[in-house]
Amino acid sequence: MLKVFADRGGTFTDIVAVTNNQAIIDRLSKHPERFLIVSLPKGQWIVVYKLLSENPEQYQDAAIQGIRDIMNISSNEPIPTEAIEVVKMGTTVATNALLERKGDACGKDSILRVVLLITKGFKDALRIGYQNRPNIFARHIVLPTMLYEQVIEIDERYDAHGNELIPVHIQQVKHDLQAIYNTGIRSCAIVFMHSDRYPRHEQQIALIAQEIGFTQISVSHQVSPLMKLVSRGDTTVVDAYLTPILRRYVNQIASQLPGVKLMFMKSDGGLVAAQQFQGKDSILSGPAGGIVGAVQTSKRAGFELIITFDMGGTSTDVAHFKGEYERQLDSEIAGARMRVPVLAINTIAAGGGSILFFDGSSYRVGPKSAGSNPGPACYRRGGPLAVTDANVMLGKIHPQYFPSVFGIDGNLPLDKDTVIQQFTQLAQEIQAVTLNHCTPEQVAAGFIAIAVANMANAIKKISLQRGYDVSQYVLCCFGGAGGQVACLIADTLGMKKIFLHPYAGVLSAYGMGLADVRAIREAGVEQPLSQAIIPNLHQLMQYLETQARSEIDEVHSQVEIVQKVNLKYEGTNSTLTVNFADELGLMRQQFEDEHKSRYGFIQLDKTLIIESASVEVIQKMDTPEEPLITRTRSIVETPQTIDVVKIFSTDRWYDTPVYRREDLQPEDSINGPAIVVEKISTIVVEPNWQAKLTARNHLILERL
């Protein structure tokens, strides 16, 4: 049987498969340049495979193609699904839909068209939003394009205490909705005042929409049952916009894998069955797999304080871990505001594909990416210079140790000659404008320094700016491009230890296989924290747990329950999440400790308000075991180098040994500068760093 874990990134799609099929392994072993195979206990193997996310000449969907390649099935043959036990996926389909939306142009595709139904008088509430000014001095404010195409104002109203002030005019609503339906719109978002507590009017309208034939009906009291009309409304519109797009993608995958158990990663770090995968839960589907993979593998390595650093081709994701997954309730991604629990991930537009350019006075890195098509200049598709090209120029990436998947036929190595030529030309252009003489390698190093500074600032935002001392943390580095800059990032932040898992290059995909099934339900409370409310909270927690359990199929398996409350000072909007407890003093102490760490003060005279409560039901899954490796060489024998190359670091060239990761054995240590090449990534050990291999095949880099 085959288990498949896949992550479709912006540049590469990563596949990790677990199999006990000897025939598959025998066949794939003949192609070591394409597949990494690792033996597991109990007669199983892990197969690691990477392919470009977009390669229209070769295939339609990268994940399905990856399965076909592993099973040796041609594109016109059906996949033998009886041989596949489960497929677990993360996808960027929803994120890309938000990033690439084109406003009214979406009207050509009915799946992207949404109508908003909102309480009369609040037609522009979501457009007005909260009047945030991210750039306080900007004179020209560009509002994000709204995801809904039309608005219907519904003459209805409950007051804040549940009294019905204006009932729904059923016939008028039927007439208005039918008119919208006749224009071709099939998705609606229903958002009414106070419906988080009093949802009857929303339920009435949803029933009418269903009778008329709307195929996607997102109702705010189900999507985000919390206070605040704007954030609840935004979340509902996002769900109405994305769920049909996701449904189309999920159906496309499912049609190729009939009868296979198909699961997707949610933004909160939990898996969910494909048919329950919703738009609001999908925004951070891919990055969430990376966080889960980083946390679970770091725990196995014995690390508890972790900064995760995931550098891919298009973006870099960073997160903080101190014993439990950190989630945030309010987030804004690609201009869309949402109020649902998502992993606290800070994403910046800096990756291996980030485009490099000189604007006449300074170097710029990103935010635009070359993606996988055309990709960086070295990808042989006529792309622009990118971060990956800079590392090629500096000798930190060598074509002979990089997958040969480029060119029209997908079988050529990286093109180093064009990289040297373009950097030489760029250095001449810079010299002509600035009159400063820089060699091509110095120009490349300058761009890398800017990219590293941008990524280090992203880590500071989720650590130092929140009161955490990063020098006490381990940098868990992964993603295809992460190992190339790990030491530079750690140096910038004053971190002393880096952890690199053997599957670091595909850790987001591996994380799908390490994740549990999770279901989270939340509800608004908005009551002062007092002993009298504890029994009511117990009842609410029980209700939320019942709801969450309904999302999990196999409730007979091992299940863990986590209960949380979001607290804030009266008169403020900033909530902090603490564990629910019967003892008030315990919850208050947790809140004050976190508030002191985050903001530097506490207010003992202020009343604490319980804004909302949440229950998470976690169903533990079987995860792949990791074999221990033993040393077969004498302790005095050093690992063999396979090459000596030149790399440019600290403004000079070094003769640098190259090692294969599979040649290293436990207790081996390598002093930088050095390069460790793997089939799925390249690790650069900078000067003044040392790399050591452990019995779990973990590579630990430490500052000398």
Could you provide a short overview of the structure?
This protein has 704 residues and is an alpha+beta fold. Strand 27 and strand 28 form a beta hairpin.
Q: Can you offer a commentary on this structure?
A:
This protein has 704 residues and is of the alpha+beta class. Helix content is 29%, strand content 28%. It has 16 helices and 33 strands. Strands 18-15-14-21-22-33-32-29 form an eight-stranded mixed sheet, with helices on both faces. The two termini are 46 Å apart.
List the topology elements.
Layout: E1 2-8, E2 12-19, H1 22-28, E3 35-40, E4 44-52, H2 62-71, E5 84-90, H3 93-99, E6 114-119, H4 125-128, E7 150-154, E8 157-158, E9 164-166, H5 170-182, E10 187-191, H6 200-212, E11 216-219, H7 220-223, H8 229-256, E12 261-265, E13 271-273, H9 285-300, E14 305-311, E15 316-322, E16 327-333, E17 336-343, E18 346-348, E19 354-358, E20 363-369, H10 387-393, H11 416-434, H12 440-462, E21 474-478, H13 482-493, E22 497-500, H14 507-514, E23 517-528, H15 534-549, E24 559-569, E25 576-579, H16 584-599, E26 608-619, E27 643-649, E28 652-660, E29 669-671, E30 674-677, E31 682-685, E32 689-693, E33 699-703
Parallel strand pairs: 1-5, 5-12, 6-7, 6-10, 10-11, 14-21, 21-22, 28-30
Antiparallel strand pairs: 1-2, 2-4, 3-4, 8-9, 12-13, 14-15, 15-18, 16-17, 19-20, 22-33, 23-26, 24-25, 24-26, 27-28, 29-32, 30-31, 32-33
Helix pairs in contact: 3-8, 5-6, 9-14, 10-11, 10-12, 11-12, 12-13
